[in-house]
Structure formats: structure tokens, C-alpha cells
Write a structure and sequence with these properties.
six-stranded mixed β-sheet, binds adenosine-5'-triphosphate, nucleotide-binding, ATP-binding, transport, ABC_transporter-like_ATP-bd, ABC_Transporter_VariousFunc
């Protein structure tokens, strides 16, 4: 379960999004809304990366009270990832494995799925935007997450990688992992059931 209680996200006193009360059961959720509606801000808040008011609880763990445990079960990939160019992909992956845990075979399968082994040892400063995006997705799947937040997961990916991403979401969802996806692109080819959440008038609504 992912719960938001009296959630508000503001910048410089300007309210962007509020969610009075929301409880999301295990599943896949597609957050939709126009540019600037607050989707990324919401995901960043749930990921614990930006301040907010109210309470967020995932898997019974309060995001503020037990941040370390919370961050072990909530993973996140941003829309346009930027990483230190002097690190290799392997360096960053190892850091995530050290902090998030996770099995070597599962990680190897993710790298294989996105076809990343040939350039993992290169400095990230030399990677294309699509290569970097694939790494951000691999990092979001690393460990033992209960919730994976993917902000615009399909942008900059080639069609094969888009299909891989959607396949992985379906496979992980089938094992009990839940997802919040924000995407302006249709989830064409998705072989998993999902519920739509709509950001409208500065609130998040279930679309019935
Ligand atoms: N760091 C920030 N400082 C001030 N305002 C911000 C900041 N980040 C986002 N905003 C504002 O918050 C609002 C929501 O932005 P956000 O990026 O969350 O929208 P979004 O729904 O993800 O948009 P898009 O679909 O274009 O990616 C926008 O008005 C934006 O200008």
C-alpha cells in the first residue's frame, strides 16, 4: 500500500498539487496530466527527493520517520537523468547495489535485457541520452523495491528498449512490485493491467 495523507507540494508558497487522502493498493498506476500539472513534483516527493507537507507511507513505512528503510523499498527513475560524467556505469550500478541490495543475477538480467554490457565500463560523460536513460531504468529496478516510480520512462528510448521497459514493468508487477508511471506517451503494447490517475485542478484523482 502507498498512502498519501494531507499531501501538499508548493514552490515558494505556490501550491502545485494537493492530495487530501489517497491509498493505492499493489498495482500499476499511470499518472496523466498536462505539462506543468505536477506529476514530476509528486513522484519526486514520493521518492523523498523534494520537501512537501503531509505524510507519505509506503509498505507501512513513513517516509520521514524511517527514511533509510523507506528508500530501500521505493525506487525512482527521473525523466531526464544526469549523472557525474567521471563515473562509469559500473561504478554507479555498484553504488546502487551496495545501498539498495539486490541479487547479481537479477541485475545481470536487467543489463542483458537493455543490451548494456558493451559500454558499462565507459565514463557516463560519453553516454548518449538513450544509453543514460536505460541505466536510470536499470537502477530503478535494482534491489528489492516494493514501489518503482518511473517519470516518463519511454522518452529517448529506441522502440526495442521501450518494449523492454514495458515488459520488465509487467514481469516485476507479476511478482508483486507496484509502479507509478508518468507518461505522455501511450503505454502501447503493455501486457499488464493498470489504473489511471489524473492530475486535474491541482489534485490527483482516480479515473473511474
Ligand atoms: N524547482 C522548482 N522550483 C519552482 N517551481 C517548480 C520547480 N519544479 C517544478 N516547478 C513548477 O511546478 C509545476 C509542476 O511542475 P512538474 O515538473 O511537477 O510538472 P509535470 O506535470 O511533471 O510537467 P511535464 O508534463 O511538463 O513534465 C510547474 O508549474 C513548474 O514550473
Amino acid at each position: 500500500m502507498l498512502e498519501l495523507h494531507d499531501f501538499k507540494k508548493s514552490y515558494d508558497g505556490r501550491l502545485v498539487l494537493q492530495v487530501p487522502d489517497l491509498a493505492l493498493a499493489e498495482g500499476v498506476y499511470w499518472i496523466q496530466g498536462p505539462n506543468g500539472a505536477g506529476k514530476s513534483s509528486l513522484l519526486r516527493a514520493i521518492a523523498g527527493l523534494t520537501p512537501y507537507s503531509g505524510r507519505i507511507v509506503a509498505g507501512g513505512i513513513d517516509a520521514r520517520c524511517n527514511k533509510k528503510a523507506y528508500c530501500r523499498i521505493v525506487n525512482w527513475a527521473e525523466a531526464e537523468p544526469v549523472y557525474p560524467g567521471f563515473l562509469t556505469g559500473r561504478d554507479l550500478l555498484q553504488f546502487y547495489l551496495d545501498t539498495k541490495g539486490g541479487s547479481a543475477p537479477a541485475t545481470a538480467a536487467l543489463l542483458e535485457a537493455f543490451g548494456m554490457n558493451s559500454y558499462l565500463e565507459q565514463n557516463l560523460g560519453t553516454w548518449s541520452s538513450g544509453m543514460t536513460k536505460k541505466l536510470s531504468l536499470v537502477l530503478a529496478f535494482v534491489g528489492n523495491p516494493k514501489w518503482i516510480l518511473l517519470d516518463e520512462p519511454l522518452i529517448t528510448l529506441d522502440t526495442a528498449a521501450q518494449a523492454t521497459c514495458l515488459r520488465l514493468v509487467g514481469e516485476y508487477a507479476a511478482t508483486g512490485c507496484s509502479f507509478l508511471l508518468s507518461s505522455h506517451q501511450p503505454l502501447d503494447g503493455a501486457a499488464f493491467a493498470f489504473e489511471t490517475l489524473l492530475v486535474c485542478n491541482q489534485t490527483l484523482e482516480r479515473q473511474l
